[in-house]
């Protein structure tokens, strides 16, 4: 009897969990389409401003610190994009694992990694282990807005433009999750700063090179465009990470719901077996008692 009560209790608690998992899956399913659309809609702007920066530099002879880090500065910024909430499978743990690998590689190269973390789960992980963090941001990792991208890009760009003796960094890496499709999400490491120039293809003899006129000056135009470039790239990483987080949460909750239902079915079978065993035992005892009474009467 006690075992049957235990089975019933476990079945009831598992059914409650299955309802929670199913609700989380339905919520993620309703959000994923919008998250994918927002990420895709942001890409054309990011690509356009990247092309503008490339064109700006390719057709001028200007040099800017954004294209070449401070020589001799070993400090390197690493930004990890994690999640605010759990129940997303291995989303945050995959980011942390890749970040730890990157930090180890940079340290092995004689560089000094400076850690920046976005997302409450990542912040909690590193603070619990007493790891030094230069700056953190939390809130709305599943729906990141332009405001948080602006805050992050401003802080990182300021750190990059500072000289080494003031705590500046010479490189910036971002660890994020790229959304490929509903099943595949890839953790990537992007070296964002210094900006790498893409070599343009050589023009044919009959092709006329484009002419650009920059007002008020090339330097001022570059100073105005570069912060927007960094912000757009970071915002793009935030949006594709948000879509990946939602997809991971939907997949994780779908798997958890299936596992809970399988566990309920298994517990129900065990409960029925326990009932059958109990009934069989009771029948055996009744038959045995009846036979004993018959023998006494004889």
TrEMBL record:
Record's GO cellular component terms: plasma membrane; proton-transporting ATP synthase complex
Name under which the protein is recorded: ATP synthase gamma chain
InterPro entries: ATP_synth_F1_ATPase_gsu, ATP_synth_F1_gsu
Membrane topology: Peripheral membrane protein
Keyword Transport: yes
CDD domains linked to this entry: F1-ATPase_gamma
Keyword Ion transport carried by entry: yes
Family: Belongs to the ATPase gamma chain family.
Pfam families the record matches: ATP-synt (PF00231)
Main subcellular localisation: membrane
Oligomeric and partner information: F-type ATPases have 2 components, CF(1) - the catalytic core - and CF(0) - the membrane proton channel. CF(1) has five subunits: alpha(3), beta(3), gamma(1), delta(1), epsilon(1). CF(0) has three main subunits: a, b and c.
A GO molecular-function annotation: proton-transporting ATP synthase activity, rotational mechanism
Origin superkingdom: Bacteria
UniProt-annotated location(s): Cell membrane; Membrane
Annotated GO biological process: proton motive force-driven plasma membrane ATP synthesis
Record's keyword terms, sorted: ATP synthesis, Cell membrane, CF(1), Hydrogen ion transport, Ion transport, Membrane, Transport
Physiological role: Produces ATP from ADP in the presence of a proton gradient across the membrane. The gamma chain is believed to be important in regulating ATPase activity and the flow of protons through the CF(0) complex.
